[in-house]
Amino acid sequence: MTLHHYLILAAVLFCVGLMGAFTRRNAIVVLFSVEIMLNAANLNFIAFWRYSENPALLHGPLFTLFAIAVAAAEVAVGLALVIAVYRHFKTVDLESMDTLREE
Amino acid sequence: MSLDLIRDILIATVPLLVIFPTLFAFTTWLERKALARIQNRVGPNKVGVPLTRYGGRFSLFGLGQPLADGIKMLFKENIVPRDADRLFHLLAPILALIPAMLVLCFLPLEFPWTESLLPVQAFLLDGAVIFFFAITGLNTLAIFMAGWASRNKYSLLGGMRAIAQMISYEIPLVLSAVVVVMMVGSLNAAEIANAQADWNWFVFTPWGLAAFVIFFIASLAEINRSPFDLPEAESEIIAGYFTEYSGFKFALFFLGEYIAMFAISGLAVTLFLGGGAGPGVAALPWLSTVWFIAKIFALIAVMIWLRGTLPRLRVDQLMGFAWKFLLPLSILNIIVAGFAWHAQQQASGILKAIIWVACLLILYATAKGLDQLNRPNVRPREYKYAE
Amino acid sequence: MSEQIAFWMLSAIAVLGALVAVRKRNLIHGVFALMIFFAALSGLFLLLLAEFIAAVQILVYIGAVGILLLFAIMLTERVTGDDGRRMTSRGWFWGLVVAAAVFVILLLPAIQELPPPEAAQAIDPSVKELGHKLMNPYVVTLEVLALLLTAALIGAVTAAQGVRIPKEEDSSE
């Protein structure tokens, strides 16, 4: 296995997440997609670390650890917002939340 | 090379998959018998050797009962509700069993024939303890899956209760393990067990004792044992998440629950009760396995005793106990343990004893204070409309 | 050899899990597919010898984020998803095109431009070293992260709690 295998896998996963974020209208599914993209990025960090010249510095795992913590915070706040929005609009459909649009 | 690796892995794991289900069968018998004695009954005493002519004649204290139960479960009809999600209904019991079986390999259980297999032993992983907690958490998902897939109100309620309970109690569980990890300076299960050789068990220190009690209570909640068996409270929600399960799927849930019980008791033994340490281990190394399993059974005996003795908690009591009592106490325990560790590095002799007593007093006073704070404000009932 | 088999299996599971997670109409099935994706990724981390990250991945993503998603779905949606509403967004076609374009135009050439790969060095990853690193050069980051998590906790609770409507207004409506 080489670095390129992992990078291409991460790129594929990132694009799957991107596709999900663009094509679904459920706010929770969009959150799934964001998580998939974040995880693809984490995979990149770890792969670059593993094939780097100086893995003893542990930059990859440390950055991934921070990224995971930030992602957890993001999910918590994101889902709280989804629930708040649901309480207001009675739906989590992103396209029916268009009250700022000019008629 | 690859074949050797596979053979080593099989030798390391297959004994776990044989020994623990066998112990499960024995434990069900033990539990029924002990509960019966607590309730002034006799318990199972008829079944001897099933499927033979001697079934009824030599009863052997009913030791054949687990086998008879197993055969009964196998031949029962498998009923799936019409509206259920068939795939998830099938997957849930399997998913409940897998994590429980998986975490067994993170226990530092060394069998005499596995000494040459050190490279494949999972408990020598650098993060064995954190892997244990991570994989135990998967059990929650299986329970939610079962509750949701059954399409039954009571199942769903049981599943949601289970999730809320397990998430709440996972925090004190992990925080109390942190004390030990901090003291040893390693997440490696074997190193933690080795650090407690020569009777330096963590349960004999004030912070270790507090952590052990918190860990034991939280682990009772984590595996849905009485008095924390609200997710399967039969007087309120029938049988909770496995209401709609019958036959072998039900047996799988049952097996998963007991294996999880062994696993979490095994972790308690590793963290606080010295792992396989005990008298005679230095002379006969295989005794460590025996001691390990004996300690697990000591903990399980306490669990059975509690089940026979304590009534079930209410939901608000359950949550309040986790968040208002166990969580502050375990956080304080970490701080106390940190101070004690630093003080012990410098002090010696009489100072050490003073530190011990001080730690004990602080922890006891905090527990007492938290208890007083959380007392419900109950007064004698005042009758308004009646004399 | 065994590493290659593991890599291909895990990556197939990861891609399939991600695809099912974003395309499944039934959201609960979607969450479980997402968890399979997380688990496969954790396996890939193990393959790259990042044990601790693999454990944290399971602990945080499957144990916490997954459960949170399940709760959010149970609180908001009719979960069976068989109510025949439209699932895809209005510009789904352009979304697909952009995603494919990002892959073909942005990511692939960037990966191909990398220098030819060198063999991975033998490393002995230890959780202890990671802990020391967190305490010595990165302690400020760690503290900021703790602050962020606390802020996120409070923020999430306030956002999800919503505005309490006083009782007078309630009765007048």
List the uncertain runs of chain B.
none
Classify the beta-strand content of chain C into a percent band. Answer: under 5%
Q: What's the Cα radius of gyration of chain C?
A: 22 Å
What gyration radius of chain B follows from the Cα positions, in whole Å?
A: 23 Å
Number of strands of chain C: 0
Helix content of chain C: over 70%
Q: End-to-end distance of chain B, in Å?
A: 87 Å
Description:
The complex is a heterotrimer of chains A (about 100), B (about 375) and C (about 170). Chain A is mostly helical and about 100 residues long. Chain A has 3 helices and no strands. Chain B is globular. Chain B has helices at about 1-40, 65-75, 85-105, 130-135, 140-150, 155-185, 190-195, 205-220, 235, 245-270, 285-310, 315-345, 350-375. Chain B has one domain. In chain B, α3 runs parallel beside α10 (about 245-270) and α10 (about 245-270) packs across α11. The longest helix of chain C is centred in the middle third of the chain and has 26 residues, at about 50-75. Chains in contact: A-C, B-C. At the A-C interface, α1, α2 and α3 of A face α1, α2, α3, α4 and α5 of C.
Q: Any descriptors?
A:
heterotrimer, A: 103 residues, mainly alpha, Helix Hairpins, elongated, B: 387 residues, 13 helices, 0% strand, globular
List the helices and strands and how they pair.
The complex is a heterotrimer of chains A (103), B (387) and C (173).
Chain A: H1 3-23, H2 27-50, H3 59-89
Chain B: H1 2-38, H2 65-75, H3 86-103, H4 128-136, H5 138-149, H6 153-184, H7 189-194, H8 206-222, H9 234-237, H10 247-272, H11 287-309, H12 315-346, H13 350-374
Helix pairs in contact in B: 1-10, 1-11, 2-10, 3-4, 3-5, 3-10, 5-6, 6-8, 6-12, 8-10, 8-12, 10-11, 12-13
Chain C: H1 2-23, H2 27-47, H3 51-76, H4 92-112, H5 127-135, H6 139-161, H7 167-172
Helix pairs in contact in C: 1-2, 2-3
Structure summary:
The complex is a heterotrimer of chains A (103), B (387) and C (173). Chain A is an all-alpha fold.
